[in-house]
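Hi V.,

You were right to ask for the full record rather than a summary. Here it is.
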Amino acid sequence: QFNKGDRVVINPTVSNREKEENIDLYDGYSFIGLGSDGGFAEFTNAPEENVYKLPDNVSDKEGALIEPTAVAVQAIKEGEVLFGDTVAIFGAGPIGLLTVIAAKAAGASKIFVFDLSEERLNKAKAIGATYTINSGESNPSDVINKHTNNGVDVAFEVAGVAPTLKSS
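Predicted structure:
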């Protein structure tokens, strides 16, 4: 039961919930904000089962980070990052930074972060990245080879740009 003015957070994933995930995870898949108005719209619609009340002890700022944090945590889970693994993260925007935190929480031993923004790289270093590299100045493969024996165990492309995808 929701009332006008309730602080809520949503799971934006809308899919065919009748099928088992191992059959086809993306059957009937949609995303609130992708084909409809999303979180920056004045109003939007979401299925009731996708809406959750925000507990009083969770701030609005923390609530705003729930969905992107879930993206990062899911990436770490699907990447099967294990304790001691080495990880490369291409892109130090909000999702990339949250992926640093999730990788560190999973026990990654070395976390390489590549981006073009020094400000974002500094933030990545501050939250636990082992190496932060400006990919416009250094070749990612050279840096990784210098600091690992056989490359990284898992790489995440979170910049969403073609050149990054090719280099990862």
